Amino acid sequence: MNDLIKVIKSEQSKSIQFSDDLPSHIMHYYHQIIHKYGQNSFIWFGPSPRLCISDPQIIKEILTKPELFHKTLPDAIGETIAGGLLYLEDEKWNKHRKLVNPAFHLQKLKNMTRAIRLSCLNVTDKWEALVSSNNGKPQEIDVWPYFEDLSGDMISRVGFGSSHEQGRRIFELQKEQVKLVLQLMQFLFIPGFRHIPTKSNRRMKSISKEIQSVLKGLINQRDKEMERGEAINDDLLGILMESNIREIQEHGNKSMGMSIEEVIEECKLFYFAGSETTSSLLLWTMVMLSIHQDWQTRAREEVLQFFGKNEPTFDGLNRLKIVTMIIHEVLRLYTPIPMTARSPIKKVKVGNLTLPVGVHVLLLIGLLHHDPKIWGEDVNEFKPERFSEGISNATNVQFSFIPFSSGPRICIGQHLAMIEVKMALAMILQKFSFELSPSYLHAPFAIFTLQPKSESFHMVWTFTKTVCNLSTYYQRDLTKPELFHKTLPDAIGETVAGGLLYYEDEKWTKHRKLINPAFHLQKLKNMTRAIRLCCSNVTDKWESLVSSNNGKPQEIDVWPYFEDLSGDMISRGIINQRNKEMERGEAINDDLLGILLESNIREIQEHGNKNMGMIIEEVIEECKLFYFAGSETTSSLLLWTMLMLSIHQDWQTRAREEVLQFFGKNEPTFDGLNRLKIVLWLYTLAPLIARSPTNKVKVGNLTLLVRVHVLLQIGLLHHDPNIWGEDVNEFKPERFSDGISNATNVQFSFIPFSSGLRSCFGQHLAMIEVPPPHPSPPYPDSQAAAEPRPPSTWVLRSQAGGGLGPKIPGRRQSGNWGSGEWWPKKLEKFLRKQGLDGNPYRLLLGDMNDLIKVIKSEQSKSIQFSDDLPSHIMPYYQQSIHKYGQNSFIWFGPSPRLNITNPEMIKEILSKPELFHKPLPDPIGETIAGGLFSLEDEKWAKHRRLINPAFHLDKLKNMTRAIRLSCSNVTDKWEALVSSNNGKPREIDVWPYFEDLSGDMISRVGFGSSHDQGRRIFELQKEQVKLVLQLMQFLFIPGFRHIPTKSNKRMKSISYELQSLLKGVINQREKAMKRGEAVNDDLLGILMESNIRETQQHGTKNMGMSIEDVIEECKLFYFAGSETTSSLLVWTMVMLSKHQEWQTRAREEVLQFFGKNEPTFDGLNRLKIVTMILHEVLRLYTPAPLLVRSPIKKVKVGNLTLPVGVHVMLQIGLLHHDPKIWGEDVNEFKPERFSEGILNATNVQFSFIPFSLGPRICIGQHLAMIEAKMALAMILQKFSFELSSSYLHAPFAILTLQPKYGAPLLFHKF
Length: 1310
Fold this sequence. Notes:
Blueprint: H1 2-12, H2 22-26, H3 28-37, E1 42-45, E2 48-53, H4 56-63, E3 69-71, H5 75-80, H6 90-100, H7 106-111, H8 113-132, E4 139-141, H9 143-160, H10 164-183, H11 199-227, H12 236-251, H13 260-291, H14 293-307, H15 314-317, H16 321-333, E5 340-344, E6 348-350, E7 353-355, E8 360-363, H17 365-369, H18 372-375, H19 414-431, E9 432-436, E10 444-446, E11 450-452, E12 461-465, E13 484-486, H20 490-496, H21 505-515, H22 521-526, H23 528-547, H24 558-583, H25 592-607, H26 616-647, H27 649-663, H28 670-675, E14 689-693, E15 697-699, E16 702-704, E17 710-712, H29 714-718, H30 721-724, H31 763-769, H32 824-833, E18 837-838, H33 848-859, H34 869-873, H35 875-884, E19 888-892, E20 895-900, H36 903-910, E21 916-917, H37 922-927, H38 937-947, H39 953-958, H40 960-979, E22 986-989, H41 990-1007, H42 1011-1031, H43 1046-1074, H44 1083-1098, H45 1107-1138, H46 1140-1154, H47 1161-1165, H48 1168-1180, E23 1186-1191, E24 1195-1197, E25 1200-1202, E26 1207-1211, H49 1212-1216, H50 1219-1222, H51 1261-1278, E27 1279-1283, E28 1291-1293, E29 1297-1299, ...
Parallel strand pairs: 2-8, 18-19, 20-26
Antiparallel strand pairs: 1-2, 3-5, 4-12, 5-8, 6-7, 9-12, 10-11, 13-14, 14-17, 15-16, 19-20, 21-23, 22-30, 23-26, 24-25, 27-30, 28-29
Helix pairs in contact: 8-9, 8-19, 9-10, 9-13, 10-11, 10-13, 11-13, 13-16, 13-19, 14-16, 23-24, 24-26, 40-41, 40-51, 41-42, 41-45, 42-43, 42-45, 43-45, 45-48, 45-51, 46-48
Keywords: Heme, Iron, Membrane, Metal-binding, Monooxygenase, Oxidoreductase, Transmembrane, Transmembrane helix
Subcellular location: Membrane
Region (Disordered): 771-790
């Protein structure tokens, strides 16, 4: 080490000529060793021998086997400068790389272009000011410090977005840390040296702490932004955190993601690697262009040709050939990291060498890049033309150019570095010409990257300004909780509520003691204002709705309002209130969280022992319980109270009179609310409570053993005529006129909030929250609808001991927990009596766990084109049918789903929508699509009638131009990519393009001139779909979607933003219509025109849609329109790539009709071969291979009788792959099946239904076919294409059928 350091110091003090051999200067000691001992030589790096390797094949073998060769980093470097991917190994490296990868996808980098451009602009503006102030003379500028700052600023902006100023501080600290580490390099091999409290070691420790603190602050800030639903996925940190959260949620295991400390290490690596590489590359590029003016001129001419004086774009930068050649040559001559070290983890043979553990191999990349046997005798000369035919053709030796390493551990940020350098260089060339200053000394030296020896020499250029400028959740024995414990499924304790809900014994006692103060009446009194504010928000909305109905009664579905209200009261009114008061410096002990924390701290202080209080994780669990229990109880109580008052007008009147007597028109007060005597009870909130004895115990005349569960039937107790009388089922509040204890002659007969020590501690809060009838009723007679809903339209929805909810007419149901008369076990018995078979019902999730496991296992596989597709995309259903036969069922949560593949039964079900409704999980209907997708009966009929005009063929014809424009944007991009590849086939993954294309088309045809806002709606819908899919496995846990998890909050935020965007577009369109402007040439315009016409014809708004209805239909345009088209297009391209003869026939037909001209609507409808191809693709790769329906009453279908609660699963994918219908070649691509049309494709009616069937057939099928034909025709006009060797055939069904690994195809210009 001493010799190495002496030689390095000696050589670094010298400057060299440009023609000198660079490796002998920057790696002088290694050069001496090789010269003295030959190629097979080694040096001693402390106690470890380092073997010098410059042979490209050996370098390749080592770099491509990271599982055998690990990095050899000194501790100080890994711990203080970078960390993360730089020094992780094996499984941990794989996990981090997978999580970090999305941040460096080209599309994400494209979104960062603006930030990079802004950083560059700051520098060029400074230089421009300096040059302008020099009175026309050349201005000498030392560019190195500017480039160091620029690279730090770029990585701050692309790494941390709006937090880049904090990022600048990290950059400065990192720079200082690097210098300190370099000073200690010679001492690293002295055991424990870095722990000696020297001034440098103390400063290094201090810097590490500060970096940790700044980064932790940034990450916590970003967490809060994510909780608020703000957009944060446009920088490296945001994308990394999003990727991390997604991975954790997908696996339901935090260990699958990164800890906050690991995220911090990756952020440090962003800075270190990102800034060091970019500044070094920029610097040496400027040096070379200053020496070689001819290449500076050629580069400038290319930049001006592409951009002129405009801002450089991402796509344009990627097309710069000369600039790319120059940068590659600079990377060869001035390789940023000219040496990299590896160490075998076991004895291994490499080439003709056997390497034991303990030997390090030093891969001399710099020597490889300067080897005259590879690059020629002009190896030391600057000749960008070496790369004119690309990297692979620069030499005749493979792996001879690896500036960013190679193999699995190739630099993840290489594309970002190239974009940064190209952007900076392009903007400099637009504004300046430059040359070397006479004071410049050429003295490259290697620290971590190759840098100029700026401490000893000034590196300056003379700049001349050019003309190119750039602009800027039996009763007595409830009293014995020590003998009877709760029996909760894990999922509830772990994901919904936790805390007191499932704690027992000492831990429960501790928590209850700590939480009790938060529910003292005086504390609740202080919360009254917040509760009142929440209630006021709801009544204001209702008042507005009623006022807008011209004095007529306004129908309002109150359930969703009460769901939101209860959540708002428990969150904004109680917990979030604390944050605002903290910001104002006020007391923070007047909300539940504040009081809980105060109680916790006091308990710890009194006992001097942290164990007497709660840890932060326990506080979190209690907060989750606040939300779950608080919101579920309040919303259920409110709903049933309103229903009873709507039916019993006399009690509504008496309640209102009492309220007005106490409050008049004034705000209700806490004391006044507690004096209201008319109490309203009938619907028990938790009709079942379960307990389990902890040891053998005698209760009454029963002896209970451990593991026997006792089910306390509170609901039956409250409806027992022996206790309450023969009128037990009647609504008679007068039972409680003398209080609860006198309501019956039986003790403990009324326990809605449980009883004993574990009586609900939040009961007083719930009673305060339930608002009395509004003192100024927002609707006449305070009815929830114009007429009371008939009792048959309301059913109890028992939520496994949770709340009770209504079945709401006109809306879909979610396969309830014993809805109506049918419970899962009764349903199972009924089905088995008819010869149907399936797994026995399992509590809560049914077959969901098995289904998810099988799907995940199968989705990771690729298949052959000849394989049976349904076995791959619907494996669990296939397994069920194979095991139990065609007449089988599976359990989708508590609902049995019956497999149906018989075309006649499918036809019968689909043609009777009045008997078979869609059983959609709530979040899908409410957050993704809505509208026609989930409506039923009269409301569906009304919407369908109003929307139909938008999909008439003459209207679709008018949309052809918009569709063509969207397609042209894609084909133009592909054309540029193919043209830039020098006549060679260009690999393009078409899937992301088709996702974007389908979104763009539906934006244009849906919203016309407002398609830019439409693009944002499309992006939000895509994100919402991903979130819904993550929550699918939790949908059967009562109330899960109301728990304030990050995903649920983000979904809610997206819903609000979608509502806002769509409302804005609709309001804008309404104003345009009032001004008499034409707005009826897109889906929204035609829908609004149809809506207005219907309203005017009947003279009532009830005949049309409300603005909320229109919004739901717009969401459906996006969801259904984009998902179907992109799926159809991608599988069509894959099939035509596989079957070249059909590609040729399709192209010949397109050229016959259109030549090179734009395809027309009439011409597209006459394309027979293209239509045959699309139909065969729809058969093989049906976009929606499963449809689900549920009978609304007992009904007979075929030879089966189906009760309410059973779902029928229409297996469209299996129908389309049935060899009895389509023949033994069913899995083959044969468009000729459809040569005589759809009706003649088989001998079986209703065997081809890709767009469903019957009255609810997809309304947009013709639009989807026109879009697919237009895109396909324009692609065939310009390109021929084939499957890439990297293509893996792995279709998988999400909401539509998509390619798991994308669809990379090779394109040729036609």
